[in-house]
Amino acid sequence: MTGGTTGPANPDWTDPACPVARTLDLVGDRWSLLVVRDAMDGARSFTEFQRRTGIARNILTDRLRKLTAHGLLAQRTAPSGRRQEYVLTDAGRDLFPVVLTLRQWGERHAFAPGEAHSTLVDAHGAPVPELTPTAADGTPVDAATTHVRKVE
């Protein structure tokens, strides 16, 4: 990651030793993840992000600046050469499983039975299968079968 807000010396981390807390410090507000989601879906310009999310211009400006500063998005000259566009970096693309897991949780818990919602499909048009975390031996893991090893 880039920018001056990463690393153990940063006093702004919510919980400096916890990867979940650090991630939420970087992308835990609703607008940041929606910008990342839309970048994954092909949005590139300020106007596209604003149209897709309905976010206020000042908030979008702040989130794009933050995501760029933390190395999740990069700015480049658009193919037309007339304006800048935003593209996901490797770190931004690495959030795909996070967005997928949020989507799948939402499909199970945020809609009434039979309520219409968008569907994520693969390159062949088939729905993306349920993401299931597994242990090294391939067995499924969950909160009941894992624990956090704290740093000392």
TrEMBL record:
Q: Name one Pfam family in it.
A: HxlR
Can you tell me where the transmembrane regions are? Answer: none
Entry keyword set: DNA-binding, Transcription, Transcription regulation
Q: Which domain of life is it from?
A: Bacteria
What are the start and end residues of every segment in region (Disordered)?
130-152
Keyword DNA-binding recorded:
yes
Residue ranges the record marks as coiled coil: none
Does this entry carry the keyword Transcription regulation?
A: yes
What organism does the UniProt record list as the source? Streptomyces albiaxialis
Q: Where is the HTH hxlR-type domain?
A: 18-114
Q: What is this protein called?
A: Helix-turn-helix domain-containing protein
Q: Which InterPro entries match?
A: ArsR-like_HTH, HTH_HxlR, WH-like_DNA-bd_sf, WH_DNA-bd_sf
